[in-house]
Design goal:
Helix content is about 25%, strand content about 25%. It has helices spanning about 15-20, 45-55, 65-75, 90-95, 120-125, 160-185, 215-225, 295-300; strands at about 1-5, 25-30, 35, 40-45, 60, 80-85, 100-105, 130-135, 145-155, 230-235, 240-245, 260-265, 270, 280-285, 290.
């Protein structure tokens, strides 16, 4: 089929590659504008833009559906639009541009976790299972009828970054099979059923760790905000990024600690929660490079009185 592909982050690249490999004609790639990245704030194309250009595809960059963009897409005679994490709303005029409309690969089992951060919120909730849904895009937020859905487990130690990386690969194969069935008219969309929940985009306010919560809640929260926006605690008013933690085994020697208090057993560092302690594996102090937690704690003269807030 003649397809328009819309996507922005690295998680959308496997789907673009899979559609190209499957023989579809990608008449244009729609992605968000170049953004300033890193400490030096260098203006950088999105991963999808970069990959589209590598493939020699027509790349359209826009953060919103202007009349100019809509007209450009309408003149491409595309049969179907495919979206994977584009990051902006598609208005009704643009929805009508491809003859078959648009389909969206979404990383949750709709109507669960509609919105911008479904994989992150699934991990933060402590879910043991999530999935992917391919649905017909409508003007409402992830409300369209469903063509296909597939479940996928959430690993006990997976961060949201790990989960998204895996779903991006699994979703690419799932997407190509579904697009093929849509093109062959062998698949019909059915309305969503059940109560909707929502997964709003994560912000800096989601970084704060509440150490007084139960250990499983703290663990899920930290994994859910890793790598972005990242888990952060304060030490003497300075931010300390919590890069990785783990749940100690039942037979491990673990100190008794109040929430946020630190303790070492041999080379292992633990931090207290509202229930049992977690092992602190790696951290990044403000203005410094990531380091093992034991090295960070060993370098502190006040190690015995430190508290993460």
């Amino acid at each position: 089929m003649r397809l328009v592909f819309a996507g922005t982050p690295i998680t959308a690249v496997p789907s673009l590659d899979a559609l190209v490999d499957d023989g579809h004609e990608i008449v244009a790639v729609l992605t968000r504008d170049d953004a300033k990245v890193g400490r030096s704030r260098v203006l950088t194309p999105s991963p999808v833009a970069a990959r589209g250009e590598e493939l020699g595809l027509r790349v359209i960059k826009s953060n919103r559906m202007s009349e100019e963009v809509t007209n450009e897409l309408s003149n491409l005679d595309a049969e179907l639009g495919v979206i994977v994490a584009y990051g902006a709303l598609i208005d009704e005029a643009t929805l009508a541009a491809p003859t078959r409309g648009w389909v969206n690969l979404h990383f949750s089992l709709l109507p669960e976790l509609r919105g911008a951060a479904p994989a992150q919120r699934a991990v933060m909730r402590g879910d043991s299972e999530t999935g992917m849904t391919i649905f017909q895009l409508t003007a409402g937020l992830d409300e369209g009828p469903i063509f296909a859905a597939r479940t996928s487990p959430v690993g006990a130690d997976e961060t949201s970054g790990d989960l998204l990386e895996r779903l991006a690969v699994e979703g690419a194969e799932f997407l190509t099979a579904t697009v093929e069935a849509i093109g062959a008219d062998t698949l019909n969309a059915v309305p969503q059923a059940g109560t909707a929940t929502f997964a709003p985009k994560l912000g800096k306010h989601d970084s704060a760790v509440t150490w007084s919560a139960p250990s499983e809640v703290v663990d899920a929260h930290i994994r859910g905000v890793t790598p972005e926006p990242g888990a952060v605690s304060l030490v003497d008013g300075q931010p300390l990024r919590i890069l990785s933690i783990s749940r100690p085994s039942e037979d491990a020697e673990v100190p008794t600690l109040a929430p946020g208090h630190l303790g070492a057993v041999g080379k292992r560092v633990f931090v207290g929660t509202g229930t049992s302690p977690l092992e602190l594996l790696s951290v990044q102090p403000a203005g410094k490079k990531p380091m093992p937690a034991r090295d960070w704690l060993r370098g502190r003269r006040d190690a015995e009185t430190l508290v993460l807030a």
